[in-house]
Each structure stands twice: as C-alpha cells, then as structure tokens.
Amino acid sequence: METETKDTTIKTLTPDLLQKINAYWRAANYLSVGQIYLYDNPLLKEPLKLEHVKPLVVGHWGTTPGQNFIYVHLNRIIKKYNLDLFYIAGPGHGGPAIVGNVYLEGTWSEVYPNVTQDEAGLKKLFKQFSFPGGISSHVAPTTPGSIHEGGELGYSLSHAFGAAFDNPDLIVACVVGDGEAETGPLATSWQSNKLLNPITDGAVLPILHLNGYKISNPTVLARIEDDELEHFFKGCGWKPYFVEGDDPLTMHELMASTLEKVIKDIQGIQKNARSTNDNTRPRWPMIILKSPKGWTGPKKVDGLQIEGTFRSHQVPILVDADHPDHVQLLESWMKSYKPEELFDKNGTLNADLAELAPIGNRRMGSNLHTNGGILLKDLHMPNFHDHAVSVPSPGAVTGKDTTVLGEFLRDVAKLNKDEHNFRVFGPDETLSNMLGSIFETTNRQWEARIEEYDEFLAPSGEVIDSMLSEHQCEGFLEGYLLTGRHGLFNCYEAFIRIVDSMFSQHAKWLKVTLELPWRRKIASLNYLLASHVWQQDHNGFTHQDPGFLGHVISKKADVVRVYLPPDANCLLSVFDHCLRSRHYVNVVVAGKHALPQWLTMDEAVIHCTEGIGIWQWASNDQGSEPDVVMACCGDTPTLETLAAVSILREHLPELKVRVVNVVDLMKLQSSSEHPHGLNDQDYDSIFTKDKHIIFNFHGYPWLVHRLTYRRTNRELHVRGYKEEGTITTPFDLRVQNDIDRFHLVIDVIDRLPHLGSKGDYLKQQLKDKLIEHKHYVSEHGKDLPEILNWKWNNK
Amino acid sequence: METETKDTTIKTLTPDLLQKINAYWRAANYLSVGQIYLYDNPLLKEPLKLEHVKPLVVGHWGTTPGQNFIYVHLNRIIKKYNLDLFYIAGPGHGGPAIVGNVYLEGTWSEVYPNVTQDEAGLKKLFKQFSFPGGISSHVAPTTPGSIHEGGELGYSLSHAFGAAFDNPDLIVACVVGDGEAETGPLATSWQSNKLLNPITDGAVLPILHLNGYKISNPTVLARIEDDELEHFFKGCGWKPYFVEGDDPLTMHELMASTLEKVIKDIQGIQKNARSTNDNTRPRWPMIILKSPKGWTGPKKVDGLQIEGTFRSHQVPILVDADHPDHVQLLESWMKSYKPEELFDKNGTLNADLAELAPIGNRRMGSNLHTNGGILLKDLHMPNFHDHAVSVPSPGAVTGKDTTVLGEFLRDVAKLNKDEHNFRVFGPDETLSNMLGSIFETTNRQWEARIEEYDEFLAPSGEVIDSMLSEHQCEGFLEGYLLTGRHGLFNCYEAFIRIVDSMFSQHAKWLKVTLELPWRRKIASLNYLLASHVWQQDHNGFTHQDPGFLGHVISKKADVVRVYLPPDANCLLSVFDHCLRSRHYVNVVVAGKHALPQWLTMDEAVIHCTEGIGIWQWASNDQGSEPDVVMACCGDTPTLETLAAVSILREHLPELKVRVVNVVDLMKLQSSSEHPHGLNDQDYDSIFTKDKHIIFNFHGYPWLVHRLTYRRTNRELHVRGYKEEGTITTPFDLRVQNDIDRFHLVIDVIDRLPHLGSKGDYLKQQLKDKLIEHKHYVSEHGKDLPEILNWKWNNK
Lengths: 795, 795
Prior knowledge:
The structure is a homodimer. By secondary structure, chain A is an alpha/beta fold. The first copy, chain A, folds into three domains: about 1-365, Thiamin diphosphate (ThDP)-binding fold, Pyr/PP domains (Rossmann fold, 3-Layer(aba) Sandwich); about 390-595, Thiamin diphosphate (ThDP)-binding fold, Pyr/PP domains (Rossmann fold), CATH 3.40.50.970; about 615-790, Rossmann fold (3-Layer(aba) Sandwich), CATH 3.40.50.920. Helix content of chain A is about 35%, strand content about 15%. The first copy, chain A, is built from 26 helices and 22 strands. In chain A, the strands form six sheets. The first copy, chain A, has a six-stranded parallel beta sheet with strand order 12-9-13-14-16-15, with helices on both faces. Chain A has a five-stranded parallel beta sheet with strand order 1-2-3-5-4, sandwiched between helices. In chain A, strands 18-20-19-21-22 form a five-stranded mixed beta sheet, sandwiched between helices. In chain A, helix 10 (about 250-275) links the parallel strand 4 (about 240-245) and strand 5. In chain A, helix 18 crosses helix 19. Chains A and B meet through helix 8, helix 9, helix 15, helix 16 and helix 22 of A and helix 8, helix 9, helix 15, helix 16 and helix 22 of B.
C-alpha cells in the first residue's frame, strides 16, 4: 500500500497481513451472502441465474459484515497471544457470519462432515441456511462455538459474564447490537463489571456494534452525541475505545491496533490484580465499533439507499421471479468480493488465508467452553441425610424448609470450593429466602465499594445476589451452566415471571441440543422459588403469582421438571436430585416460614423417588376403596389438607378418607406425555376411577385439570390460588382462596350428600368458624389461636 | 436560625418556612411510623404499651422518610408555581409515606370519609395499614394520587413518560429507587428522554433516591464513584443535580433551592421550545437525592447500626412479646418527631402546617391525571365497515389482515389527532407487523438526531416504536391509559412474553380498582399480537411462543378478553370493539401474511358479536347431528380446518361435518367462570354432547382442554403448537405440529372406525401426500403448488 510507505506511524498490521485479513473478511462476507441467497452455483463458476437462487430468500444481512469483521480480528489476536477466547453474537440473527466463519476455520466440517471444505460442501453450506430441514437463520445450538442463540434479544452480556465467572484464563468477546442495547436486560447488564473479580474470574470484552439501525428505526445509541456515548460507558464503569469508519483497510488497522490495546489492558489488569492481590474494581476496556449497516453490500437498489441504512437489515436485494434484473445485481455484489482470489478451483479457502485462523480448540467454533458438557464435572455432594430434620411423628415438629436447605447448600458450596464450579444466584433475595447459612462458608461477590455495615460482601464469593435484576440472575446462571458448571437461581415465586421469556429460550436451547449428538449435556437449570404465594408478610397482592409452573410445563416434556416438596426432608431429597441431574429445567417451590414437618428422611426419600404417594398414616381407607380422596401438592395446601382430614376423621369417623400427596407435579400427566407421568393404571389405583378427589393445589387450579384431562376419574375438584387476598394473615389468605381446612371439609360434604344431616351440621359449624375467623382476624390482625396451635394428631 | 443570619447567601427558604417544612416532614414521618406500628394510642397520649402495637408489624421504613422529604418539597413548589404535578413512587413499598402525605393534605379523608382528620381518624389510618381487611403496605390502587403500584420494581419511569406524553402542562415527578434502578426495565427507561417532545408533551422529573441499600445489599449506583454517577446520567442525556446529606435543615434548603433550579430548567426548556418551535432534544433536569436509608429512624438497636444501612429496609425495631424493651425504643423514636407540636389535641394537623399543602386538584393525591377515568373521552371512531374487505364468497379472495387493520388505525389516529389521546406503541415492529398505513397520517416520535434516510421519524407523532424494548412499550402504554387516554401495543407474539410479569401487575391493578368506586374506569389495554407463531419467515424456533394467551386467562375473568379473528373483517370488528371497551386487557392475535378471507363484513360483525359460531356454509350437517365437529380458532388453524373439511366432503361425502369457528376464546369457558362463557346448553348445541370434536387451535392444545374441562362432551381432540419446527415453509411448520389439513383428516378417520376401508384408503393417500410434501419442501424450499394454490370450493 502506498499510504503505508508514506505513513511514518508504526502500524499493527504489515501490508501483507492487512491484505490477508481483508481477503479473509471478503471470504466471510462472500460466504454470508451465499448462505442467504444461493441454492446452487456456489462459486459463481457459471453466470448466475434465477434458478440458482433460493425460492424463499430469508436472513439478516445488516449485522453480518460487521460481525465478520470482528471475527477475523479476534482470530488474529487469539493466534498472536494464544488466547482462550470465544465469541457471543448478541445480534445473533447474523447467523451467516458465525456459520461462515466457523466453516472457514474448519470447525463446521469437523462437526458436520458432510459439509466439506470444497465446492460440494459450499453448496451444502449455502443451501442448508434458512432452508427447510437445514439450519436456523440465527446463531443457534447447531452453530459450533455458540452458547447464545440469536432471536430474542438482550441477554448476551449476562451470558458472557456468566461464562467468565470462575474461568480466570478465559476472555469472552461479546458483540452487543445497538438495537439489543435498548432492551432492559442489556441496559442493566453493562453494570455487571461490579460483580467480576479480576483475580478469580475471566474477562468480558464487550464490543458494541453501532451500525445505527434496527429493523426500520435508527438506534438510540447511534443518535446521541459522541460525548454522551462516552459519558454513558464511563458511567457504567468501562474504558471505551472507538473504532469508527467505513473504509475497510483503514478500519482493519484501527481495529487491530485497538485490539492490541484492549488485550494489553485486560492482561495488565489481571496481572496486576493477581500478582498484588489487588481487588480494586478495574475499568475494563470495551470497544465501540461504528460501521455501516450492511457494510460492503449493495449501495443502492431501485434508487433506494441500502448500505448504511435500515434497509439492509434483512435481505437487501429481493431476487425473485418478479425482479429478474436483480439476479445481475446479486451476482455483481458477490463478485465484488473476488471469490476467485479467495478459493481455489475446488472451492477450498486458499491456504495462506486459512492459516489466519487459530488452530484446534483455540478456534472460536471449537472453544471447549462453548460445549460446556465436555468440561462438566460432577459436583461433590454432601450426604443430605446429614441435614435431615428429625420427625418423631408426622407434624410433631415444625421447621423452616429453605433454612434447612440453606445448610445443605452451604455444604455443597464448601465441598466444591476448590473446583470453582458451583454458584448461587439471586436478586438480593438469598437472605430473604432464608438461605443465609451459605454465608458461613462463602460471600456475595462484589467489586464495587464495600463499607462498614455491609454483610457477607467480598471481592470473591460463590453467591452472586447483589444486583436486583432477575434478568441478570437468569442470564448469569445460563452462561455459567452452558460453559459446564452448576448452580441455582433463588427467587421470589411471583417475580420469576420477569424471566418467563428467558426461561423459554433456554428450554428451547436444551430441546434442540438434545437432538445434536455432538452437543454434550449440561447441568440442569435449578430454580428455587421461595417466598411463595402463600407466604407473604411484608408484601401482598403484587407478590402473588404461582403461574410459572404452568408456563414451564408448556415446554417440551423432555427438559422440564416441577417439584413441590411438602416439607424440609422432601426438599432436601428433591434438591439433591436436581443438583445431580443433567439438561433439565428443575423448578422447586419451597416455603421459608415454620410449618409442620411430616416425613422422616427415609420416608421422604421414598416419597420423592415415587414423586406421588398415598400417605397411609393420614388415611383411614386401608384395605378398601375410599369415600373421598384428599389430594395435596405444595407445603401450604398439604398442611390444610391434613387439617381438613383431621376434622373429617374426628367428626365423620365412618368416612373413609385417602390422603395423596404429590411432590413431582408431572406425575399427574399421562406417561405418554411426560416421562415422569403415571400410567393410567397407577393413576387410577391412587386416585380411584370414580371417587371424588378434593385436590388442594399450590398454584392455579386449572393447572391440575390441564395435567389430568385425559384421566378416567372426572370427579376432580381442585382448589388453588384464584387471585384473591392481599396483605393479611397466612391463614386468611388461604381462606380467601378457599384452600383452607374449613372450605375443604365443606367441599367434601357438598359432594357426599349421603352424609345427610351429620354433614349439614358439620358444614354449619365450619361456616360459623369461618365467620369467627374473619371477625377475629380483622379485629386482632392475627389468626385464631386454634389455627396457630393446630397439630396433627395421629390417633 | 443563627446560621441563617451569618450566612450571606440568599436562601430559598425563609427561617420560618424552613421550620414549617421540617415540621411537616416530621408529621409525615410520624404518621409513617404510626402506620407501620400502631394499633392504638395514635397520639401517644398515654405511655406506649405492647398492646398498642400491631400483633404483626410489617411494612418498609427504609425508603419512607426520603419519600416524605420529597413529597413536602414538591408540595412547596407546586403551590409556589401552581404546577400540575403528580408523584410516582418507584420504591412503592414505601406505602406509609404516600398514604401519610395524602392524609396530611386532606385527600385521604375526602376519598375515605371514615378516616377523619382527628384522633379517631388517625387510629383508623394507622390500624388499616398492612392489616387484614385494610390497605396494602405498598402504594396501591387504594392510594389516591397513584398510577403506579409498589411491589414489582422497574416500571416507574416508563409509567411516568407514558403519563407525560400529550400532557404538555403536566410534570410527572418520578422517584426512582436505587434498588429499582438495577432492574433491566428501569435501566433502559433512562433513555426515554429521546422520545419526549418538549412542545407537545409534558415533563418527567426523575428523582433518583440514592439511599444506598436494597433488602440486604448495597446498591450499585451508591457504590460507584461520583464522577461515574455523573457520567452515567449525562450519558443518558440528563442534567443531574445532586442533593446530598443527612442534616435535615441543610437538606431542606438544598432540596428547595435545587427544585427552584429544576423547575426553572423545565419551564425554560418548554418556553423556548414552544415559542420558537425548537424541537432540539433538551437535556432535561433530574435530581440525585443521597440521603440515609431509614433517615431519622433509630440509629442503633441491640448494638446494630440501623439508620443508613440495609437493616432499616423493613421494620427497624422488632416490637413484640419477645422484645418488650423495644416498646420504649419505639416510643422514643416516635416522640422524637414531637407530635405535640404538629397535631392539636384533637389529632388534627396544625393549620399553619396544613396550609403548606396545595389545595384542590393541585394536591398530588387529588391530581386528576392519577384517576384517569375522570379525564377519559371516547375516541372518535371511523366506521370500520368502510375498511371491509370485499368477500364475494368464502375464500374467494386473500388479504393481509393486519394491513387492513393498519388502514383502520390510520383513520383512528387521524380522527383523534386534535384530541391528542390515542397512541400506538411497539418495539420497532409497527412496519414489520404491517401497520404501515398509519404513517400516512402520522409519524414515529423521536427527539434524537434524524438523518437523511430515516423513514417516518419526526419530533412529534402518534406512534412510539423507536426503542427496542417491550418493557418500555408496555410501561408507556400503561402510563398513557392510566392517565385517561387510549392506545395499543403491537408486538411479535413470542416476545410479548417479555412483559408477562408487567401484564400481571396491570391486570391486578384493574381488578383492584374495579372494587374501588371512586376509581373511574380507564380505556382497555389492547395488545395486537402479530407476526405470530404460524407466520415466520426470517425467524424460527425462538420466535414461536403462543403461550401468552394461557398466561392472560389466569388473571381475573372480569378484566381479560382474548380474540383470535379468522380474517380481516373479523379483525376489524374485534378491534373496533376493543378500542371502545373499558377496563379490560384485550389480547388480539392476527396474522400479517396473505390468507384467504372468509366472511363479508356483515357476517363478520354477527360472528364476532356472537364470538363463536357454526359456519353453515362450510358444514353439511344441516338439520341433523353431525358425525364430527371440526372446530378452529385462529387464522391459520381455520385455513387448515377448512382445507381438511373440503377433503372430507370430497372423499367422504356421506360424512356429516360441522364447522365451528371461535373468535372469542373465552366463549369456551363456562358462563360461571367468565362473563363471555357459553352456558352448557349453548355449548352442547354447538359442539354436541358426544360427537368427536377435532379442534384446531392457534396456541398450545392444553389451553382448550383447560377452558373446557367442565363441559359434557369429552371427545375433544385438540391440535395446536407443540414446540416443533423452526425456519421452514409455512405449511411445513403446520405439518410438523400436526395442525395441517392432512393430519386433521387422519384424526377424523382414526376416530371414526365405521368409515372402514374407505377411511383407510383415504388415510393412506394422505400419508403418501405428507411424504411427498416432505420431499418436495426439502428439495425445493417451498410448498407444493397444490397447497399454495388451494382454494375453498363451496360446492
């Protein structure tokens, strides 16, 4: 380059390397356009015709050349410094970029040997993209090197930080789209640098890709002033570097030299922190890449500006039978990359370009962290029996379920401390959810200022719960799991719904990866939903939503599990199972207030292993069909059902009552629909074919109907949460939703007319009791002593 | 004050006013503590005893004194400048602050006359707080002056901007908690100033309440450096003012003088913009208030620091039978406010303090915008018949449903332009959802830089869709509706789930306000879910989630409505109804691609009014019971059901087929559960009591089972989305989920064994057809011509 010789500043790229990098980028751009458009004629060896173009051209061009640009530069820096670095594509609809690069570096053909690195392979590569039976238009589980699916936007940085935790030698390069940057989850995730320890964690390198447009609008960050943009990122605690322009060769040098600085910064921060044990929060570097949307694509089509505008977001040229002249445009565009200079006659990338990519597992598509199951080690598990609550007889003692679990989790954290592969996430609720025992062995990780009265904060620790963002907790945990580690997310039950949509995307990821043999199974995503709908104190109506369960089970049965342990020993047994399990989403609902304990640990293990069972000790139908089945699921419904049963057995001793408790919700569904489901015979043997079932449920009643609509017994009457009640006493909330003992007994009487006047008499007594309750509570602000003092009496 | 006379700078507050403001603040603080703790003895006329304290003390003290501080200062500035200004409490768990202030200003006693402004009223005020049968501990619908419930955090600023749009004389003071500020939705909502027009909209004054702690953690924004904090807000486009300290008198002067500057800034910006028509984006002022958490509360309790730490978040002193000595502590705390100087013997606020509050509707609790139904005007509605698609016979023409709706919405926007009370919100999807016609009459409002190639952007316009944040769209629309205007949120179906939790909170708000006669009904929240699960092109598996419907109907039947119009004329009829309706959440699912049109406008109106109906023109069971009921709900399922019926009628003409279409999903539920529900007789007359129903549904199949589980006819077989398929052809996606015509016919044959060999033969033909389809699609990337060209033939 002439300019090189005139320029006296020292360049990062030699003229030769500059040209090679540009050529590699052209190759990636060529492959990207080919994927979007071409059905055949991949090397354009013959003049392009309409029949070479896919019948339905779909995909996203706009972000793609910029991501190709980033990828080739990351390749260079990885190779130069032998970095352990992988790539997260926030604007993941730019699938062609990542797929193309993973192909160029050779990973794609290793994972999918039918797509060879020659003309035949190129044809397959192009055809499969966004084609029926092929691959998604987004970065997806099918894309080697990805832990982050394109599609729903906003979670890239949270995923990146999740991956970087406890991976001190890893750098996660996270490309953030400027559209994505407008989502709430992404906006708050810039603050994650307050949670990343420079000694024990890796680094996250955000690259804000400011190409200026979303689908049809400009982006906010592209239309504020430069000083505002810089203020913003400094305010978020970053050291921003700008890489801005549209001339490819100038931009290559700028990007290369900036990456040199950035890697120097990262390595300097880490070296300093690690050699001096200095935990001061660093100002980590980030890059703001301003490049035209649809860079190097068609400038104008039919008189409309395409490059550098929103019009390049998806397909910049419509090539179909209605636009035959556009075939020529497409061909010119593709030929502008000079494929003949890039690929040999066989369609293989020229060797001098191929050698620009890193090799082996340093290739971003082959980075082991991105197929975390490979790195996954079993947790060292404490014996949960050691944490058993002693239960001399059912209901004889009370216990706080999550407090007991907290002690178990403390020991899990302790046993795996050296492995650095277990973390607890939460939105400032770990203490509120009564898991505080974990702080006997570890702390909450926090790199911002620590002051005198803070508790359990330290620069490094296994708990991350110092940001009030459910989105961040979910994103961190997903990133942590996807890179081969273990963990859980503890959350108020109502507010887990903030991440409904994130859960869906993760469940979809799990479903698709199950179909990919090369993707190894990862640890399950465990939710502990405490502070649940029935256990309000400082909060009310806004904190009541047990609907996550219904949301979860709309996903594929292969990957979702739901548990509602009735007491602490069952919770221990269930959680031990969840932490050992793989590739599920486990939802566990548990209370934090003192409630009666029902089962010994041995009984709990049996009960949880079965997932559902008749509680013989509470039933009096031994050896015969019951008159009524009293079923319950969830800690509070179980308490009320047992209290109802004690009333029934006292006042109507001749009535044969069977008590059924459900821990594993999916047992209710048919075995043909869920692997945990009971077959009809077993279901009928528990619930009978025709006796009335009064089912007391933790969540919305219809969920039980939805799970059981194929069952024979239609005499199913479900009580559950029906959006009534706000701040009140625990028992009154149950009364307002009809799940209390009195309503349950009335339910039985209403359905068994043969009880006659004896039933009517009891019913009237209970109605009077409900009135007494109401008066007492509104006068005294607490429950009747007989409710507070009630105990199961196993006569 | 001595310091006053020595100080030569001019103070905003005279010594007398300073003392009065401080006294008013003490009164508010006193009332706050009283609400949290006291059951009796409200003026502490006798020594405090345990029995004067509530048996269960719950509430949040931490944020409360700071909010009391803000409230009294806003009172002053409102009164001084006669401002139309109301208050949003982001940290809305500080209910005692807002309730106390609304009581002090007199609004509470006007709305709830039993709570008088005397000792008896004080006792009621205190007792009702967080007490069974009383009011919530959070700011709630019961709180006059509120449009924003405390509880779930993160939406305050979006609500504030929604309220400010099209209210040019309004200032919305929005207190943002520093915990709340960590949520994603709040983090992105700082950017809303790029969407607020200084001429046609009002102002939002954010007051970041930096009291340093959440439940048990410090907050991020309180633990970064001051220069970072300033950078951050400048980067977000604000002009930040700091008010920092803990000495009350100093802080009063500082807050007062800062509010003077802030109001001057706001009025200056507006005056300049309005007098010169200058739309340049202003740097609006905001306040960062750094004050101790639990300010003026107990400093230490049992040796632990309380004031200024997380320990003051909820109840700073535990007063119960186990802590009898704490009664004295509480009494000292309350007496530190010197109630005897604030209230007269009757318990009425002294007149010289009472006059600090604004009067009439200038009181923040009485601000009319906060009871938006009062201000609500009916929309001027165009005649939707004018937009009718001409349908000569069923299926004779195709149409793009949302395109037709877009023309209707354009006319709604046009007719209400002068009223400034109708807005369309969306996350950059209004064009993608094919509502582009609206831009013939208006623009997308955008205050950031506008460049050459932008489309439909202008400083002022009725569409707000230039931020890619579903949270913002939902929050803006809620704020807009709650202040008495109309609007809709258009969104991709899958991504509406991002706001699952926000929808829940709004539905809960609607439910509670229905129970409050003084709260006037507001316009319905209308969702248009386009780009739905069956209509993917550039996207795949990640964009498929029809589960919002199931989420919505878990809320109270009084407030939720769900519509799935099968064609454009039905969509028009439904949407006309939704825009006229009040106090509902209406969910409308509609497609954007060309599909057959079935009903004339007159037929559509009848069909949508009924909500469900037998399509006689497609059925051949006239005058008798059918052999099978082919039911459908949703545009794509309707198409496939009709195609299946045409196969049945051609190949099995002797079979009597009834076609039922459902527009109003809630018709399926029992009339005892939903006001729209069919009674059993009507349901049975449509669906029969025992014939097989093959129900083709838009969403998850179980939703139909959940709605119908109480119905007599159990022979219900539902097809719907089952999480299969990604990018493929439209028809193939249906095949992969078994909702296509061929599977439907096979379903019929499988359930009617009496069809014998004729059925078997047809079944085999269809299976062959499915194989042919599969091969064709994977080879050609498009659907079989016979599928693309299929038309209903009404023989």
